[in-house]
Specification:
InterPro entries: 4Fe4S_Fe-S-bd, 4Fe4S_Fe_S_CS, PSI_iron-sulfur_center, YfhL-like. This protein has 84 residues and is an alpha+beta fold. The chain has helices at 49-53, 69-83, and strands spanning 3-5, 24-26, 31-33, 59-61.
Length: 84
């Protein structure tokens, strides 16, 4: 699944630089995660880096983008090929 940021976000700026896929950006009011770029850090790290650093635990699994670990790995591989 992709991740999303809830409205409890305090705009602390710690999640954005941690995302290896560039999926996190500043939205109109809070940070947002592009579900097409989010792989939950599959392919890069063992755990989701944004979740690990979030001081208010406002980054959750997005039920609108259900993906298996295999699907996340395929998305990661596709993103790597596009950036090469």
């Amino acid at each position: 699944m992709a991740l999303y940021i809830t409205d409890e976000c305090i705009n602390c700026d710690v999640c954005e630089p941690e995302c290896p896929n560039g999926a996190i950006s500043q939205g109109e009011e809070i940070y947002v995660i592009d579900p097409l770029l989010c792989t939950e850090c599959v392919g890069h790290y063992e755990t989701s880096q944004c979740v690990d650093v979030c001081p208010v635990d406002c980054i959750l699994l997005d039920p609108n983008y259900a993906e298996t670990q295999d699907q996340l790995m395929l998305k990661y591989q596709h993103l790597v090929k596009q950036s090469a």
